[in-house]
Design brief:
Two copies of one chain form a homodimer.
Chain A: H1 2-14, E1 19-22, H2 39-44, E2 52-56, E3 60-64, H3 69-76, E4 81-85, H4 94-101, E5 107-109, H5 117-128, E6 133-135, H6 140-144, E7 157-158, H7 161-164, H8 168-178, E8 183-186, H9 189-196, E9 198-199, E10 212-216, E11 220-223, H10 231-239, E12 242-245, H11 250-253, E13 260-263, H12 270-273, E14 279-282, H13 286-292, H14 296-323, H15 331-343, E15 348-351, E16 356-359, E17 383-388, E18 390-392, E19 395-396, E20 399-404, H16 410-428, E21 430-432, H17 437-449, E22 460-462, E23 471-476, E24 490-493, E25 496-499, E26 503-506, E27 509-519, E28 522-529, H18 547-564, H19 570-579
Parallel strand pairs in A: 1-5, 3-4, 5-6, 8-13, 11-12, 13-14
Antiparallel strand pairs in A: 1-2, 2-3, 7-9, 8-10, 10-11, 15-18, 16-17, 17-20, 18-19, 21-28, 22-23, 24-27, 25-26, 27-28
InterPro entries (chains A, B): Creatin/AminoP/Spt16_N (IPR029149), Creatinase/aminopeptidase-like (IPR036005), Creatinase_N (IPR000587), Pept_M24 (IPR000994), Pept_M24B (IPR033740), Peptidase_M24_C (IPR032416), X-Pro_aminopeptidase_P (IPR050422)
Family (chains A, B): Belongs to the peptidase M24B family.
Protein name (chains A, B): Aminopeptidase P family protein
Chain lengths: 585, 585
């Protein structure tokens, strides 16, 4: 590992750079990047999905969030890279760390295509105070990464209207309807995929193509290598006057735009932003909200996807609970079994993210990835947390269940129950239109906060429709979640509790925001579950629960049985009836 | 009423003004104003504590909030003044109403001393779009209000350290410690009263003197008529170099300030703001937060005040519940009885606001004031809501109880229970430091929202220490409540439900924010009740409640009995034991 940092430092010295920043991103502000863009992981050895590495000439530090504290500590051990825990009191921000460590007049370098314009402006302001100089046109990692994977180039496929609910033409018209500027820059790959009903396989678990687009009032262009396009899409584009331009041509084309351009400074890459010469109107890309509010077809199709997923998950739970201790199984083999069950469902595309299968203390690593080095056999004892999901043509799923494999401690039982109470409280929440994720999160966390416990991640994230399993703007967390919930938004409900070195628990369903009564007080709203899989009631201490919570759980399990049992064999069905038994309090 | 508007319109014509705005305020942004400043009430006949009147040459309209919709509708009937319901969909803002009704080049007039600088800037921006002209130096109401009450001029008294916890000198030093500007403008009368430990009787229920102050790093001045000052305060000022300046001299003195001046644009009056020639640093006045976080002495003393208040309230409840239907009583006579019981407690100063004693459908008028015209006899049936409080030397109280005087409907019973569940949920809330009133409100409203019901007022407001019964910055409501709760803040917890023409219910305690566990997750916080008076359990449907809520109520009532019973006679004590009986679910 140190060799890589040394090589990078040689390049930094050549360019007279004193600090180099390597984020986890690509040119499109993508959360999970393809291997070509895994520079931070390549340099640091930390494989989590989020983190920023700062390399100085003598020191290096990596910032990541609460999901990855334990994992990063392990993976960075001995690397000479300090771990910076984001959100923990006393952790400096990246910019203040750099300002503190560099002398006035020093140079900070990075590749401006990997940072949003908003981020670069924050850096500029912070660095300006100490007269630090920015060099933003340098991909130094590329110079030292000899076997760097190439940019992905998978074939696209057309996402049918029967799944998308609206055609490309309808969507472009809707965008133009609300666009006040002359042009709209579309730089996030899932925005492009949604708008053109286009999918591909450029990134594992994120079925999109690396592409940009510009929609003007009288013109629409997509920036993608023509040779990748499927026949249906090419035909559609030709018929509806969508211009196909080479991927890199975006950088030259933006210089020719005139009038006003709508740009989201929080997602466009800074290099591209600074090529625009026309008047910029900064605003959130309107596609974000349109994409988040699922249309009727998307909702109906998503329900089909969730039923398939529920069948696979229930079969998995049956296999796991009836076989543990009898046949050999491990974190990795169980994850493979689950994948195989999902894959046997019709219209399965791929897993919607890398399954987290975490036994006992591995569960405390929020985004644990089992590997041959860490894999452990499952025994008939303790807790086994499995966070997984699938992309089907009908929709995307994301579910976590925590399975009781045998005896558990009283403390594990209490934590299991309190976390499930959090889950239920959020599913039961009712609110007036206008409430945000920051507010709803209060309701979710009460049962754990009452016991001075918390979990250091959001309670819920938006879920894309055969796109990213994480999407905005809907999010449920107690800070910085300002978007009011709209009917049609699909969000996860996934409280948890993580005790380092002991266990991890998470209970996750996906929920749909729906309109309830509208009266003089306003528009009341609530959530409907989309996920129909038993929670493992073997982990519950029913005495800790309120009767209303038990009633909710019993009603939920009755529906699970009703929906899933017709697709099971007799043995599985009998087992499910027991798994869904009503609890008494 | 029309005569007054006609007279005002004559004056408007003389000044060539097409619209004149009359708010509910004084020169200090005071919520409850003294009679001298009741211009809006004088002109419109609407006596509520909040509202803005706009008089055009042919039309007039009055804006008020949800607490006063019913009352304002009644009082404005036949006045020719349209009621504008703030916060209701479709209601125009004051500025957009004026812009819509006036032609370009028209003149809008008001007295700039009655508006904050921030408000005037909003008007200027809105009016500028239609080239409306502002005239802000005109008190037209003064010209037509022949018997206008004079400005108050009551004698001050020193608020002893045994009640205040800190001396004036300590407070001024603390202000200087956090002041980054050269001077701090102190324009709210309770800020002045808090800083100098000074009280008076200028405004009913608000024991302050009309005064300003300026604190500089090397100087402190108070603007108040010298002849009003008590000997102790005058001596203190002399000894500690506090300059006493005439009340009106603030307008000339601010013109001599140099360097930087810290000013809160949301509370300083616009006329005064625009007299300042030095550099202005706009920020919330630091005294607001210092004043809101009660010190140990204030907290301890407030607990004494609440015990006195609990004795008076319990005696009142005993009298009411045992005598209704047997002796004549009415809204007004009951309120008088309650006042007399409070006044018989040692160190009682005055009621902390005008008691709301509202029987049956009057309860639906959120801030109902009984008068000889509206007073009704109390019968042994229905609900009687009493919202009241007292200033004692030890502290300020604010409490609402809704009494069951006899038979009530099933719907009343359910609403009574749901509103109490809201109250209990907020008292039981636990949160991590950083959470705001916008977030806590979610927890409070769930039990009513679940039934598609709501109340159109905040769930809680800050309470001053022998100052205003309403103070900021702590507030609990689901929109625009951004201040994190700090230990030592005292806030009301007062959900309610109001069914027009039928009944009103409100359950109010005051609660103290306290620090609970501090661990790796952060600083956990919660509320402790300060109010110890029985809720009328005759109104409850226990089956609607969760066991945890019933347990909270039983524990609360056990404490009420323990605290209050030693101060009652035997008959009252027996009655209280029954009133505090444990409920079973």
């Amino acid at each position: 590992m140190n060799k890589k940092l040394d090589a990078l430092r040689q390049e930094m010295k050549k360019e007279n750079i004193q600090a180099y920043i390597v984020p986890t991103s690509d040119d499109h502000d993508t959360e999970y990047v393809c291997s070509h863009f895994m520079s931070r992981s390549y340099l640091s050895g930390f494989t989590g999905s989020a983190g920023t590495l700062v390399v100085g000439l003598d020191q290096a530090a990596l910032w990541t969030d609460g999901r990855y504290f334990i994992q990063a500590k392990d993976q960075l051990a001995g690397s000479g890279i300090d771990l910076m825990k984001m959100g923990v009191e006393g952790t400096p921000s990246i910019s203040s760390y750099i300002v503190d460590h560099l002398s006035s007049g020093s140079v900070v370098g990075f590749d401006g295509r990997l940072f949003s314009e908003a981020m670069v402006e924050i850096y500029e302001e912070a660095f300006d105070k100490k007269d630090l100089i920015l060099k933003t046109d340098l991909d130094l990692v590329d110079r030292i990464w000899k076997d760097r994977p190439v940019l992905p180039h998978t074939s696209t496929f057309h996402f049918e209207k029967q799944y998308a609910g609206k055609t490309m033409v309808e969507k472009i018209a809707a965008v133009r309807d609300i666009l006040s500027a002359d042009h709209l820059m579309i730089t996030k790959v899932d925005q492009v995929a949604w708008l053109f009903n286009l999918r591909a396989h450029d990134i594992p678990s994120f079925p999109v193509a690396m592409a940009y687009a510009i929609v003007s009032q009288d013109k629409a262009s997509i920036y993608i290598d023509d040779s990748r396009l499927d026949a249906t899409s090419r035909e559609l584009f030709a018929k509806n006057h969508v211009t196909i331009r080479p991927y890199d041509a975006i950088y030259t084309d933006v210089q020719t735009l005139t009038g006003t351009v709508s740009v989201d400074p929080y997602t466009i890459n800074s290099t591209l932003y600074r090529f625009i010469e026309a008047d910029i109107e900064e605003e959130e890309n309107p596609i974000e909200l349109m994409k988040a509010c699922k249309n009727e077809v998307e909702i109906e199709q998503t329900k089909h996807a969730h039923l398939k997923d529920a069948i696979a998950m229930t079969q998995f739970m049956y296999w796991l609970k009836t076989n543990v201790g009898k046949i050999p199984m491990s974190e990795m083999s169980a994850a493979q079994k689950l994948h195989d069950l999902r894959a046997s469902q019709a219209d399965f595309i791929e897993d919607s993210f890398a399954t987290i299968a975490a036994y006992k203390e591995h569960g405390a690593i929020v985004h644990y990835q089992s590997s041959p080095e860490t894999d452990v056999p499952l025994q008939p004892e303790g807790l086994f947390m499995v966070d997984s999901g699938g992309h089907y043509y009908q929709g995307t799923t994301d579910i976590t269940r925590t399975f009781v494999l045998g005896e558990i401690t009283e403390y594990e039982r209490k934590c299991f129950t309190w976390a499930l109470q959090c889950h239920i409280r959020l599913e039961q929440a009712t609110w007036l239109y206008g409430c945000t994720g920051e507010q709803l999160d209060m309701i979710a966390r009460q049962p754990l906060w009452k016991h001075s416990l918390d979990f250091k991640h959001g309670t819920g994230h938006g879920v894309g429709h055969v796109l990213s399993v994480h999407e905005g703007p809907n999010v449920i967390r107690w800070q910085q979640a300002y978007t009011p919930f709209e009917a049609g938004m699909i969000t996860s409900d996934e409280p948890g509790i993580y005790i380092e070195g002991q266990f991890g628990i998470r209970h996750e369903n996906e929920v749909l925001a729906v309109n309830l009564d509208k009266n003089a007080y306003g528009q009341f709203m609530g959530f409907e579950p989309l996920t129909w899989v038993p929670f493992d009631v073997d982990g519950l201490d029913v005495d800790e629960m309120e009767p209303a919570e038990v009633a909710w759980l019993n009603a939920y399990h009755a529906k699970v049985y009703e929906k899933v049992s017709p697709y099971l064999n007799e043995q599985q069905r009998q087992w499910l009836a027991h798994a869904c038994r009503p609890l008494i309090r």
